[in-house]
Amino acid sequence: MKAEVITLDASNAGSVELDDAVFALEPRTDILQRMVRYQLSKRQAGTHKAKARSEVNGPNKKIYKQKGTGQARHGNDKPPQFRGGGRTAGPVPRSHAHDLPKKVRALALKHALSVKAKSDALVVLDKAEVTEAKTAQLRGKFAGLGLSNALIIDGAVLQDNFALAARNIPNVDVLPVQGINVYDILRREKLVLTRAALEALEERFK
């Protein structure tokens, strides 16, 4: 399939041929869901922690005598039924990450790219470069291209001026091609790929 290439000034810069094996798949929501869940689970901190009864600070003295009070027998006041006591089976620090086969992850990326291509939300940009790191100027260029909510993927190295100018624009993310991922593609309305990014993706999926 063919795609028109545009510049930041909204002028035509020719066309490119997109690989049907990457950009023309019939999207499978089950694979995309598995990949998004994999990404979000992997980035969870997992630092949640509750104290068990053995970790609660305080004396181990029996709170009152065993008999004669008319109340239930108890030892110290650290069990979970007491205020300030330990929690039964509470959360502990752990990793939420789980495995997902490499082939499934690669296929999910292809399906995410196909989703954007099929919904006409894929934009091919000639170059992601500006002469000055001016956010206002770049915002104006994005407005001319209709990019108010977009993920921009460039080559292996981002131009400093472009990255600096874009980082203060809300709902616009800029990543090098090695950082492309399914979650960020799906959470933004538009996907913008530069020629350099397309070449790198073709090499990656070759």
Automatic annotation (TrEMBL):
GO terms for cellular component: ribonucleoprotein complex; ribosome. InterPro entries: Ribosomal_uL4, Ribosomal_uL4-like, Ribosomal_uL4_dom_sf. Keywords: Ribonucleoprotein, Ribosomal protein, RNA-binding, rRNA-binding. It comes from the Bacteria. SUPFAM superfamilies: Ribosomal protein L4 (SSF52166). The keyword Ribosomal protein applies. One of its GO terms (biological process) is translation. Forms part of the polypeptide exit tunnel. One of the primary rRNA binding proteins, this protein initially binds near the 5'-end of the 23S rRNA. It is important during the early stages of 50S assembly. It makes multiple contacts with different domains of the 23S rRNA in the assembled 50S subunit and ribosome. HAMAP family: Ribosomal_uL4_B. Part of the 50S ribosomal subunit. This is Large ribosomal subunit protein uL4. The lineage of its organism: Bacteria, Pseudomonadati, Pseudomonadota, Alphaproteobacteria, Hyphomicrobiales.
